[in-house]
Design brief:
Distance between the termini: 24 Å
Number of domains: 2
Largest sheet: none
CATH class of the largest domain: Mainly Alpha
CATH topology of the largest domain: Globin-like
Length: 161
């Protein structure tokens, strides 16, 4: 939920007008809107490049994943991994766009550890894959934009750790 929605709902629940601090939070959110949209555009337009680079780096770090018996061994399994990487990147863009981690939590993280455990997917491997996704993504952004986007990747990494 965006900061605007949060402020409105909180004020309404308390039957009051938004406070000066809440209005300043909305102002900051609106001022950073162009930057957030720019970041989302860069990440979404480069999804394939990011996913390819991240997966190559993951396979380099963890060749056991694509070796016989590994979770990403075989075309189908590898394609599922790449699909998940794209899904997580899209989830990151939702958070960046909202300027909030709530979309990441509500859409993508509830029950994720349990799901991967039930499928026999090593959660530490997924954490490493998100780190690779972060590195590949931030490499395409300037320093200021990377600083804005990094916490959303870190949020997923922390939630899975």
């Amino acid at each position: 939920m965006s900061v605007v929605s949060q402020v409105i709902l909180k004020a309404d629940d308390e039957l009051r007008y938004p406070s000066n601090g809440e209005l300043q939070a909305i102002n900051t959110f609106l001022e950073t809107g162009k930057q957030r949209i720019k970041i989302v555009n860069i990440l979404s337009e480069n999804e394939k490049k990011i996913v390819d680079k991240a997966s190559q780096e993951l396979w380099r770090r963890r060749p056991d994943f694509i070796a016989p018996g590994g979770n990403a061994y075989g075309q189908r399994e590898r394609a599922l991994c790449l699909r998940d990487y794209g899904w997580y990147l899209r989830l990151i863009t939702y958070g960046v766009l909202a300027g909030d981690k709530d979309p990441i939590e509500s859409i993508g993280l509830i029950g994720v550890r349990e799901m991967y455990n039930s499928l026999g997917v090593p959660v530490p491997g997924m954490v490493e894959s998100i780190r690779c996704l972060k590195e590949a993504s931030l490499a395409l952004l300037d320093e200021e934009d990377a600083k804005e986007a990094a916490p959303y990747f870190d949020y997923i990494i922390q939630a899975m750790s």
